[in-house]
Amino acid sequence: MHQALRPPAATGIPPLIKRNTALFALSQSFTGAGIQLAYGIGPLMVIALTGSASLAGLIVGAFGVSRFLVAYPVGKITDTYGRKPGILFGLALALVGTLSVGVSMELRSATGLIVGMLVFGMGMAAAQQMRVAATDMFPPRMRAQALGYIALGALFGIVVSPLVMGTAEFAAHHSGHDAMSLPWFILPVLIVGGMVLVSFVRPDPKLIGMNLEQYYPDYKPPPRPPAGHVSTFSAWSLFRFAPTRLAIVSTCAGQGNMAIVMVLTSLVLHHHGHSLTAIAFSHMFHTAGMFGFTIPLGKLADRIGREKVMYPGVAVTLVGAIFVTFGAAFWSVTLGTFLVGLGWAAANVAATALIADHSDTAVRGRAIGVADSGAGAMNVLAAAATGPLVEWSGLPAAGMAAVLVAAVPLLMLVLTPATARRQPGRLH
Fold it and tell me: pTM for the full model?
């Protein structure tokens, strides 16, 4: 079993680990604005090109398909060749996708938009191996807060996204270009900056993870597999093991709930006549919930345990979905989307740390990739259901779907014995 959770030792974080973590966090801050824009105005871009509200979830669905397709294969790449190659590959894909989205909006091509978003989404999903890199570089007693450091970098996207959108609206007003296409020609500058930062990370985090005792003298590594050991890791091993199964379901539930709510937020605010900048502003608060509290949430998960942060996080997403669904005013909807982001952050940080705790460095990319693939599948299902639910039954029906999705891991928590949830074991 992984080391018992306890407060950090006096030795603290080695300077090299601090440097690498700061580089990843800064890279995340450069690239996070793209995700913010995709979720914030993506549904409106689809409606503008297709004229159908029932297709509003296509962008979220495209992101889900991308994450489902790429998360595990990129995990395999980073387990084999190191974390940096997979991350840089992902950012290069995102660069191509960003330009494709902008060109497609200018050409009024719905097909091009979806293809571009698929490529962009695959790139962003691959770049999520930064989280795996963070878990590699820290011992279990500091692992969740390490995830918080990386996630905190995305807060920069909160400031950048409305600024980019506001600049695009101003430029569109004076140039005649589509206000929803111009931001995608600005983002490549940020993505290239993120790639440069990642290139300075040394040594590769996987090498650090395989030799943690050299960086943390007080760390006692678990027994290593015998020489010549061939990994027997499989995705199903995660689902057969109760702790990781519950962590994956919690990750998927939080992601599914959030996918529905993010589409609803844009549609509700647009329906009430708010501008694109106002919608981006509301999503700014959502992103603040997602990333603004990740360090304290991570420290809490390290101190009191993963489950005691993960399940309350899922419960908070449920409450937030209710606010978005039944709120009418701008600030009530914004409060709801903030709560969904906050709950997602708690569930995601704690669940990722739990999976990392039970996975050796050599298979950690794939283990977390399985959870990410599951979250991608939930994105697809949520996106496929949200548009038709809004079209046929109205906003409350879609909102209640988000509530029901979040209820699943809470029900599983009640039905799973505590002894099974705390079962020791490691995946090799």
Answer: 0.85
